[in-house]
Amino acid sequence: MSSRTTMVITGASDGIGAVTARALAGPDIDMVVVGRSADKLEAITADTGATGLTADFSRFDDVRDLAKQVHSRFGHIDLLLNNAGGTFDAETRTEDGHEPHFQINHLAPFLLTNLLREQLAAADRGALVLNTSSIGNLIGRVDLSDLDRQRGRGSNTFAYGTSKLMNIMFTRGIAQRWTDDKIYSAAVHPGAVATSFGRGSWVFGLYYRTPLRHLGTITPEQGAEPLITLARRGADPEINGVYFHRHRARGLENPQARHHDVIDGLWSASAELVGLT
Q1: What gap in Å lies between CA 147 and CA 135, rounded to an integer?
Q2: Which of 195, 198, 244 is nearest to 222 (CA)?
């Protein structure tokens, strides 16, 4: 039985991911921090002693390479924090041909988590998959017949909200499928955090790249608090499938988040789209 705890944190090069990594680092922690920029990760790895790995979630090949690198280094994972994501121009497509919110915020972490399932199941005391969601889930809607928004329905804000709703549905899907392996999952809205979030979308970027971001927002340190609390709580069955609004369990969520037919349909479609079937 290993006395060391292994953590994988995506979106860790800045913002709440970086704050969370610094707070959770310790002498008995084996940590992997993931970001798009090797230069940005250097400061995090220097402060935490973590292994820094780069991956661009707009490319599934990067996600698969990331999983292989984690496999080669660690036999088990106690915590997987799926924190990478953002806002983008919904009219563009990724290299894999998907609407960017759908791929980067949902499909990529879905693929990574599934590829790391063996390591999560190998954790002695159970494992926690923690997904960063958003109150924006309230304005989303999952249409199983048009997951990639080929019909162009809605705005960037709608596409973002839908991807955050998918994060909650993915959390529920894990809770329904992997509990026997002692893999538990929770989702959390950290709050409206004043970070570089929104850099990929003109509308969100106008807000988050100007002094307007200080109106009604909280600091990255404050935003990271619920992530840190839940990460330290670890593989607790009581939080399995729960969506948190910061520290409050059962936060406001889109009614679709509990539609089991949509949760199952999204899981099946996602598995097919990322090549897991």
Answers
A1: 20
A2: 195
Contact 209, 151 (CB under 8 A): no
| Whether 182 contacts 122, CB under 8 Å | no
Q: CB of 73 within 8 A of CB of 51?
A: yes
- Which of helix, strand or coil describes residue 134? coil
Amino acid at 126: G
Q: What is the DSSP string of 1-30?
A: ----EEEEEES-SSHHHHHHHHHH--TTEE
Rounded Cα–Cα distance for residues 132 and 243 (Å): 10
- Give CA–CA dist 201/261, Å, rounded: 31
| ∠ CA 232-235-240, rounded to 5° | 115
Q: How many CB atoms lie within 10 A of CB 127?
A: 26
Question: Is 184 marked active-site?
Answer: no
Tokens representing 260 are 């089991």
Q: Which residues contact 233 (CB under 8 A, 6 or more apart)?
A: 128, 239
Place of tokens 């790249």: 209
Q: Does the predicted model carry a pTM greater than 0.90?
A: yes
Per-residue pLDDT of 238-258, as tens digits, reads 999 999 999 999 999 999 999
| Residue of 107, 96, 121, 255 whose CA lies nearest to 179 | 121
Residue of 160, 207, 208, 243 marked active site: 160
The secondary structure element, H or E, covering residue 187 is strand 183-189
Pairing of strands 29-35, 51-54: parallel
pLDDT in tens, 177-199: 999 999 999 999 999 876 544 44
Question: C-alpha angle with apex 172: 69 to 90, nearest 5 degrees?
Answer: 70
| Residues with Cβ within 8 Å of residue 39, at least 6 apart in sequence | none
